[in-house]
Amino acid sequence: MRSAIILFLLLPLLSNAQISINSTGFPKNEQFVITENGQSIDLLFDANDDILVSKVASFLATDLEKVTGIKPRLTSELKGIQSNAIIIGSIEGSALIKSMVKAGKLDVTPIKGQWERFIIQTVKNPVKGVKEALVIAGSDKRGAAFGTFTISEQIGVSPWYYWADAPIKKNTQLYLKKGRFVSKAPSVKYRGIFLNDEAPALRNWAKESFGGFNHQFYEKVFELLLRQKANYLWPAMWQPAVFATDDPLNMKTADEYGIVISTTHHEPMMRYHEEWSREKGGDWNYETNQQKLQEFWRAGIKRMGDYESVVALGMRGDGDQAMSENTAVDLLQRIIVDQRKIIAEETGKAVEKTPQVWALYKEVQDYYDKGMRVADDVLVLFCDDNWGNVRILPKKEDLKHKGGYGMYYHFDFVGGPVSYRWINVSQIERVWEQMNLSYEWGVKDLWIVNVGDLKPMELPISLFLDFAYDTSIKGEDLPDYYVNWSRQQFGAQHAEEIADIIARYTKYSARRTPEMLKPDTYSLDNYREADRILAEYHELLTRSTKIYQQLPETHKSAYYQLVQFPIEAAANLNEMYIAAGKNAAYGNQSRASTNYYADLAKEKFLNDAKLSKYYHEELEGGKWNHMMSQTHIGYTTWSNPPVNKMPAITYLEPEAAPALSYLVEGAPVNRFRRTGLNARTFSTFDPYNQQEYYVEVFNRGIGTLNYEVSANSDWIRLSKKKGAVELEEKVYVSIDWSKAPEGTANGEIYMESGGQKYTVTVPINNQKREVKGFVENNGVIAIEAAHYSAKVDDKDVKWSVIPNLGRTLDGVTVLPSNAETRQPSVAGPHLEYTFTSFTGGDLKLSAYLSPTLNYKKKDGLKFGIAMDGGEITMVNVNEGENVPDWEYPDWWNNAVTDHIRIKTSEFKNVAAGVHTFKVYMIDPGLVFQRFVIDAGGLKPSYLGPPESKKF
Predict the structure, then answer these.
(1) How distant, in Å, are the alpha carbons of 503, 526, 603 from that of 938?
(2) What are 859-915's pLDDT values in tens digits?
(3) What DSSP state is assigned to residue 272?
(4) Among 204, 571, 610, 633, which is disulfide-ready with 644 (CB 3.0 to 4.6 Å)?
């Protein structure tokens, strides 16, 4: 069977499909032999080339050995070279590459003088003594590195082979199809990560594994970045850490790996936050301590020397705080002018020759909003709101700024409303959508993402860096990205199933961060929401466990880290909170099961610790000890609790003997302030929705409760007619519509036990009606945005579905995302949704949108909405958002807590029958997730009602 391994490519790099490597060979005249019959070719480089070239050549030799079991000879000498070789070099630094260019054997014109590009080509008689070579030529040192690691990836070595123990498939024979591949220029110039909030997990792991954040630790980080075709890093800086001095080899090692080092948004001039307190410089105040601060900054630029860096400008308060209570524009402008003077003096070069960045983090954006600008050569770094929502983008007239623009994004955050740091909660669909928005608005020069402890953010890191390298990936391609990423880590056999599992678990975890879960997050009363959440997790865990058990032992560690653990942990956590919620609710109902759910909540709490213990002590022999030690249970403020704290639970003393009580699902009214408790009627059944409601029979006492259920009409179906229960069970009620009377009618069911008898009315509405589209169900219609009846595009924009984006199904947005704002017109771009209302009257139509911020900084992002061809009403998504997000206003807290923004429009006196509402594009950048129409029956829940039936 043919064993092709080219498919390890990630989707953004599909252009590399021209580089074909397999283990079975190609026609003789088309193949280049890498390894065959126990023999491997030599790897040749120029010893006078940049040191990074020799490093990546060594990595490739090691990678080939891991795959084939044979380590190729690594040499910089032509003496004794084999007839075939792999030659690696940069076009300016390698005499080998230069000689081929001079002889007309290698054309490097397309990449010469370019940033981080490479050519991979088979060349006959490239140098003396070599009959044929696979040549990897980089436009610069990183170009050579990226080309080399492209081969590593194609032979089956994942960038995550160390950081996630991704298995390496063994192949004793490797063949490459001859040809020439020329890489594109990276879409974004600087692409990197920020190791942040590193205690307790990453800090303790690094200390135990390497002795701290030293150059041995950073070598692993730098290698990962290069394998991901990244080039930029903000090193760990809390707890405390000083990259430049804690290990004097850190900066040197970064330079050897070609990694550009910068400091964070509150650490100007290549100095680290911890250094100021170590040096006892006094007040961090430029107005009172200018000389000391200038000396401090001057030392940072001097220490930087010739290392490739991007110097952060500006000044915030000490320790990630605001510099002053008010926006002191004149002061900050003076600070930056003085900093640039220091840069010029210490480097001895024109200041614009040193890359610089001004980060608009939190309150610093207020300076920009009030008109402050920096020199034309300075890169302006915009920021998200710490929750993955872009705050501001450049206006079109600002794109002439030569320094360009960047984006600082987050997969991890310590701050309000509640920190999120434990497991990955960043949907790659939202990451793609927000970064695509940024790129199309001109943010193309620097992308940096806060990755916390690095693990367990492997998937979003891959997407972020892959997309930064090549922004040609489209939103509709993301399902394939999951498949290719899964194939890269685990092989082809289960890739599609694993891809779907990963997509679902990130969706489920992103609905609400684990740290913000509460016993009452998901409704116990309405839409079976809490039980649906548990069912989704249980189904996902069952699927994942089945795959885990089928995988070979070599694959299980990586799978556990990347898939199984986050699902097990999240499922367990949700079960704990929902058990605690049932414990509280059932205690109020005096259920005998109250104590069962108290015990279950406690069991799941203890199991959380067991899962972490396994991860730390058993997985890979303890390699990843400490990595899951971030507390995540029991938050009461934004800051993490010192230890996990179980939610409060209640125990009660049941009645001495069995005692019958019940709860009706879908009861239209509450009795005794308890939804459905001892209610006397169900909500109405109709033939279009084919409802099935339950009555939950529960015991309030000790012992077995024997009960009977009956109905007074043969058209009422019961899932069971008697039972014996210690705690509780559900009896499902539905209608046999072939026997039901026409029109409206009422039936009854009866519950009896030990002399107790209860009656519940079963109302039906069996009227024949015209129905079309989504039909009302007891006063509610819910429609997923992707399920439109029709859509209208125009020559400039189109509506696009982003699969899996959001809390329930998919997202729908307008592309390109930098399209011009337009006034809505009947013929303009819009979505149409057809529905049937049975009741009519005043309808409240709520649009559920991703929590996009007002990135245009005008009066708000808008869309239009109209009912049945009526007047188009403008809806301002950002109306009333006058307080900025960094001051933690309620509007923002609610949006990032619930990961949704709901905007409601009201339509008066809508007749019963078939209707169509239309959603019109006004501003780009809005993402619609679903629509809910409340005709008087909407009940409280977190996600909203399930989607209505469609005809």
Answers:
(1) 29, 10, 35
(2) 899 999 999 999 999 999 999 999 999 999 999 999 999 999 999 999 999 999 999
(3) -
(4) 633
Nearest to 193 by CA among 403, 10, 412, 433: 412
**Virtual torsion, Cα 46, 49, 52, 54, nearest 10 deg:** 20
Tokens read off for 26:
């190609």
Per-residue confidence (pLDDT) for residue 12, from 0 to 100: 38
Q: Which of 827, 786, 783 is nearest to 803 (CA)?
A: 786
Strand partners, 89: 137
Cα(244)–Cα(299) distance, rounded to whole angstroms? 12
Q: How far apart are CA 306 and CA 326, in angstroms?
A: 37
Q: What would the pLDDT profile of 72-92 be if each residue is shown by its tens digit?
A: 999 999 998 988 999 999 999
Q: Nearest CA to 20 among 9, 33, 30, 6? A: 6
Question: Is the pLDDT confidence value at 248 over 70?
Answer: yes
Contact at 8 Å (CB) between 806 and 901? Answer: no
Predicted confidence band at 476 (pLDDT cuts at 50, 70, 90)? very high
Tokens at residue 907, please? 């339509």
DSSP 8-state symbol, 726: S
- The predicted model gives 195-212 an average pLDDT of 96
Report the percent of the chain where pLDDT is more than 70.
Answer: 96
Contact 250, 214 (CB under 8 A): yes
Report the C-alpha gap between 298 and 302 in whole angstroms. Answer: 6
Burial category of 544 from C-beta neighbours within 10 Å (exposed 0-12, middle 13-18, buried 19 and up): buried
Residue indicated by tokens 């070979």? 552
pLDDT exceeds cutoff 90 at 677: no
Q: Is omega for the bond preceding 763 within 30 degrees of 0, making it cis?
A: no
**Stretch 207-211: mean pLDDT, rounded?**
98
Three-class SS state of 256: helix
pLDDT in the model for residue 10: 38
Determine contact, residues 541/568, Cβ cutoff 8 Å: yes
Instruction: Provide the pLDDT confidence category of residue 949 given band limits of 50, 70 and 90.
Output: very high
Containing H/E element for 599?
A: helix 594-617
pLDDT for 537: 99
Task: Give 729: exposed, middle or buried? Use CB within 10 Å, 0-12, 13-18, 19+.
Answer: middle
* pLDDT value, residue 238: 84
466 has a pLDDT exceeding 50:
yes
pLDDT at residue 234, rounded to an integer: 98
* Separation CA 892–CA 387 (nearest Å): 10
**Which residue from 438, 452, 365 is spatially nearest to 405, judged by alpha carbons?**
438
Could you tell me whether strands 180-182 and 190-195 are parallel, antiparallel, or unpaired per DSSP bridges?
Answer: unpaired
pLDDT over threshold 60, residue 673? no
Q: Are 232 and 448 in contact (CB under 8 A)?
A: yes
Q: Report the C-alpha gap between 167 and 559 in whole angstroms.
A: 10
CA-to-CA dists, residue 544 to 426, 531, 537, 803, angstroms: 20, 20, 10, 21
Nearest to 306 by CA among 265, 243, 355, 271: 355
385 in Cβ contact with 425 (< 8 Å): no
Residues 6 or more apart in contact with residue 875 via CB below 8 angstroms: 847, 862, 863, 864, 865, 903, 905
Residue 640 has pLDDT above 80, yes or no: yes
- φ, ψ of residue 166 to 5 degrees: the values are -60, 130
Residue 6 burial (CB count, 10 A): 18
Q: Which domains does the chain have, with CATH numbers?
A: 6-182 (3.30.379.10), 190-473 (3.20.20.520), 502-586+602-622 (1.20.58.2150), 660-683+689-766 (2.60.40.10), 774-934 (2.60.120.1620)
CA 841 to chain centre: 41
Q: What is the pLDDT of residue 6?
A: 36
Contact assessment for residue 322 and residue 331, using Cβ atoms and an 8 Å cutoff: no
Across the strands, what pairs with 752? 708, 757
Angstrom distance (rounded) from CA 883 to CA 897? 17
In which residue are the tokens 């040809």 written? Answer: 179
